[in-house]
Amino acid sequence: MREHAGTDTFAALRPYVRGLEEAGSPGEAEAYLRGRIATSTYAGHYENALLELLVRQGRFEDAVAAVAHTFDNLHDGNLLQPVLLLLAEHGLHERALELTVGRSPEFHAEKDEFWLRSNR
Prior knowledge:
Layout: H1 2-5, H2 13-22, H3 26-39, H4 43-56, H5 60-67, H6 80-89, H7 93-100, H8 105-119
């Protein structure tokens, strides 16, 4: 499964990570994802999986820190919206709102009308 998790199809990525977690190896899952992020051309899929893994472990600030560099990205690699939704699902509404403050003017011009305002 590990071999298939590292392909560009990403079909086995989440089952592989979940399998490691369920086998009692969440640290191995995290190390695998961080390694793939460091070496992948398509890091966004691995970053999203890392975000979900850390949230499942209750490591919310680690999750935010792991993907914060994407928050002002104007393209597909932006993980701010998934972070906001995951934080809100766990009752961390104030923390989610804090992350919407300080975004670049370009980001607001691009995203505010479509989803940022409604998510707030």
